[in-house]
């Protein structure tokens, strides 16, 4: 990755992180309710019975309510668990989900771990992002876990990134290893994108 792209990513991430910190608890609650509604509709549209999702941090658009509701309806939800080798293990969400702090201070499930290939069976991937642009390029938080996962899947299902409305941008800095997404979910809308294939 060129220094210019790396610098642009760092600067944009810092700005987005700061904006997220400024959101009020009420704004976060409204966003979480909107995300739940949008993701429920997305699952229905795709007829998904097995998905991957993530447990949101306090500054991310809330996904925990959605995960709990999906599990209660019998949908199989795989949650990511970070590994030191840059890959993700997966754990099946349960109604009485135990959550602990993962490697990077992120909320992760406690339970039986399935290996990285477990995600190959899902109908839909729901992943975190800092921002997504209108061509489908996603700016992550810089660790590359989801780019590696998407890039290694033989038959990748639709991939939707979850962001706040203001984080759907005209363009995000990207490099060759960055993987595009199929769409973006915000608290007010779901946008299907035609990703720029590499």
From TrEMBL:
The keyword Nucleotide-binding applies. It comes from the Bacteria. Keywords: ATP-binding, Ligase, Magnesium, Metal-binding, Nucleotide-binding. Its EC number is 6.3.3.2. GO terms for molecular function: 5-formyltetrahydrofolate cyclo-ligase activity. It holds the Pfam family 5-FTHF_cyc-lig. Transmembrane segments: none annotated. Signal peptide: none annotated. Its cofactor is Mg(2+). It catalyses: (6S)-5-formyl-5,6,7,8-tetrahydrofolate + ATP = (6R)-5,10-methenyltetrahydrofolate + ADP + phosphate. PANTHER family: 5-FORMYLTETRAHYDROFOLATE CYCLO-LIGASE (PTHR23407:SF1), ATPASE INHIBITOR/5-FORMYLTETRAHYDROFOLATE CYCLO-LIGASE (PTHR23407). Belongs to the 5-formyltetrahydrofolate cyclo-ligase family. NCBIfam families: MTHFS_bact (TIGR02727). This is 5-formyltetrahydrofolate cyclo-ligase. It comes from Microbacterium gallinarum.
């Amino acid at each position: 990755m060129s220094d210019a792209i790396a610098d642009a990513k760092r600067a944009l991430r810092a700005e987005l992180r700061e904006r997220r910190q400024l959101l009020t608890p009420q704004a976060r609650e409204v966003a979480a309710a909107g995300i739940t509604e949008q993701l429920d509709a997305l699952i229905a549209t795709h007829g998904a019975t097995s998905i991957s999702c993530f447990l949101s941090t306090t500054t991310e658009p809330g996904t925990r309510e959605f995960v709990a509701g999906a599990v209660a309806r019998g949908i199989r939800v795989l949650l990511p668990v970070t590994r030191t080798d840059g890959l993700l293990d997966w754990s099946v969400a349960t109604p009485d989900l135990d959550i602990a702090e993962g490697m990077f201070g992120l909320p992760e499930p406690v339970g039986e771990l399935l290996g990285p290939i477990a995600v190959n069976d899902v109908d839909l991937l729901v992943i975190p992002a800092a921002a997504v642009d209108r061509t489908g390029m996603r700016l992550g938080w810089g660790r590359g876990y989801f780019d590696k996962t998407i890039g290694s899947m033989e038959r990748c299902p639709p991939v939707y990134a979850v962001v706040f409305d203001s984080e759907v941008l005209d363009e995000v800095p990207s490099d060759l290893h960055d993987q595009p997404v199929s769409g973006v979910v915000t608290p007010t809308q779901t946008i299907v994108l035609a990703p720029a294939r590499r």
